[in-house]
From TrEMBL:
Heterodimer of 2 subunits, IMMPL1 and IMMPL2. Its EC number is 3.4.21.-. It comes from Stercorarius parasiticus. Coiled coil: none annotated. GO terms for molecular function: serine-type endopeptidase activity. The lineage of its organism: Eukaryota, Metazoa, Chordata, Craniata, Vertebrata. InterPro entries: LexA/Signal_pep-like_sf, Mito_IMP1_subunit, Pept_S26A_signal_pept_1, Peptidase_S26. Belongs to the peptidase S26 family. IMP1 subfamily. This is Mitochondrial inner membrane protease subunit. Residues 16-97, 103-146 form the Peptidase S26 domain.
Length: 166
């Protein structure tokens, strides 16, 4: 009887570990569902919108300008932030706020990206903490899941003029 109970217990633990490893790999390498909070990405992503984030792009270095990414916060490593990629390594970016009379520019260093929220007046982003290491990117947002009225791929940046091509 004891042998039977121990056998079932170890089988259960074995299956739990196996399925836990599969779930971990799926969420780490494939993607997952993310609930976004805060006003920094409005109007593209509202507070409490639910999105799908895929993680393969970061592993294959295929993040591009205009992509919306989930990133470990440079200010608080325990939290994630959602921002749009404005510049990749070597790109020239505008480092000043939109309301500044004099515009300042800088180049994104190797291995970094420049991130900004779509709501430029209410976003803590690379204009505050500088370029973000590529290694902090957790995933790229593919599409919005909730609310159902907005289901689908995300729209282009309302700040497209901030992308510099020279």
């Amino acid at each position: 009887m004891l042998r039977n109970v121990l056998g079932k217990t170890f089988r259960f633990l074995g299956y739990t570990v196996q399925y836990g490893c599969i779930a971990h790999c799926a969420f780490e390498y494939l993607g997952g569902i993310v609930v976004c909070s805060g006003p920094s990405m409005e109007p593209t992503i509202q507070n409490s919108d639910i999105v799908f984030s895929e993680n393969l792009s970061r592993h294959f270095y295929s993040i591009r300008k205009g992509d919306i990414v989930i990133v470990k916060s440079p200010n608080d490593p325990k939290s994630n932030i959602c921002k749009r990629v404005i510049g990749l390594e070597g790109d020239k970016v505008c480092t000043s706020n939109p309301s500044d009379f004099l515009k300042s520019h800088s180049y994104v260093p190797k291995g970094h990206v420049w991130l900004e929220g779509d709501n430029l007046r209410n976003s803590t982003d690379s204009r505050c903490y500088g370029p973000v290491p590529y290694g902090l990117i957790r995933g790229r947002i593919c599409f919005k899941i909730w609310p159902l009225s907005d289901f689908g791929f995300l729209r282009a940046s309302p700040n497209g003029h901030r992308f510099l091509d020279d």
